[in-house]
Specification:
Elements: H1 4-13, E1 15-18, H2 24-40, E2 51-53, E3 64-68, H3 70-73, H4 75-82, H5 85-94, E4 98-108, E5 116-119, E6 132-138, E7 149-151, E8 164-165, E9 168-169, E10 186-188, E11 195-199, E12 204-206, E13 215-224, H6 242-252, E14 253-255, H7 282-288
Antiparallel strand pairs: 1-11, 2-3, 3-4, 4-13, 4-14, 5-12, 6-11, 6-13, 7-10, 7-12, 8-9
Length: 296
Amino acid sequence: MLTQAQKDFYDENGYLMVENVVTPAQLDELRRITRDFLEKSRSVTESNDIYDLDDGHGPDAPRLTRIKLPHKQHPFFWEVLRNSGVTEVLNDLLGPDTLLQTSKLNTKAPGGGAAVEWHQDWAFYPHTNDSMLAFGLMLEDVTADNGPLMVIPGTHKGPILDHSANGVFAGAIDPDDPLFEKDKAVTLTGKAGSMTVHHARTLHGSAPNMSDRNRLILFYECHAADAWPLLGAGSYIHSLGQRLFWQDLQERLITGELTLTPRMENIPVSIPLPPAPDASSIFKSQKSSGQKSAFA
């Protein structure tokens, strides 16, 4: 699906925008399912295994930061990942053998929905190599005022910035870090059905949603099958044990085959420990750590 020019751009800059990666019918179904989840959230009073609630959420005005693990909440999210233009882009960039790291449907609420502070995904889950990326499939048009993704080009080739604050892993960088070159940020807006791609080491964040509508972006975080997680990363897999981990790997296989031979690369790594007081989500880690906000 991708041209050589697009692949080269991604390799050089660590991000990409791809238009029309799903069909109109697929997009309509994703929207319908998402609206149904938002409607059902009205009766939810605290964050749970499905919903991460934002401040001010209530039955009359649902306010969510995200729907957790959408690929486990409805099979169509998994179907889109395995059989659409998303799949083609995945194989173009990571090769034939790929796994899902995690998924999330960020539903950033209107009128000030929570920002995501600047961070590198790699800081959360370092692996034996960095053939890892995140897709952001836009379910509605994303404009400059509703908290679009922002990236710093080229940071996927640089160091892993310090993501700690007050002695814990904050899941966000200090905005005063001299290595944070905010003036180089690129804002990724686009039409519904478009998809952002960013490398796991690319520095990125998003401001609060100041528009009057939700910012709906479906994120899939994926990696090559020969990228294996390092012990200490923030992942549920460390509690599974060997047998359940093997089963989990098979369930997360998107395309191709599993491998038992990790590819080792000499790349910068920092283990995300100790955890923040509340490490139940990136929003909670960033807030409970006391890290300074770049969007205050």
